[in-house]
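Explain this protein:
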Amino acid sequence: MTTRVEDLSERVFRLRDTIRLSPSVWDEPVLDDACAGNSSLLEAADELGDATDPRVAAESGVASRLGLPAGFLLPSNDRLHSHVVNGVFTHPQFTSRFSLRNRGAWYACDGLVGARAEVEYHRQQSFSDMDLEQTIVHFPLTLGYSAWASDITASLHVLDATHSDVLDPHSVVASRALAAELVSLGSLGVHYPSVRAKGHMNTACFQPSIVQNVRLQERFLVEWNTPVDPPIWASTAA
């Protein structure tokens, strides 16, 4: 059965300490480390990044290929980590369940279990899409991930197990079509059961403004010994 917008209920959620895992290379402090405190080098690197990054182009009002509405993104504020939130919306992923072609969504889980399950699944999918002989030379592979906590207070559309077409673990076609319709109607987001971690809940936010109190909670080094074995997660200092 096809899930229709009119089939969905909507209610106000007050979610605290939701978790999103993202690659640590998205953390801007990495640039400071790479430039080793050299202010002129850092300034040059910032200018190069600003000239080539669609997130910065969108934030600065330069003709953005994304076509996001004026005032959609958060004002630049490093202390509030607006770059982390805005970056998600300006780098849409075609494999994401509720993202659109020209805008991403902020995905958050009710804890690390669900967030880790999402990372492991999508990374495994990326491995399986590669030629095994070319892939194996990169292992063991270690990648850094950052756990971002956030609070979300908003009226969200609610999905449950009866909406199986948009919660298909192997396809995002129906869910992305639903997301496009919801966004066109002004929906702020959806709250739905995780398809990767049974018993856990996920939230997809369609508007940056409802992602509040963003803070870095923890960093991890994640090691895959082979393309098919489960990874080993090691916590590092936040």
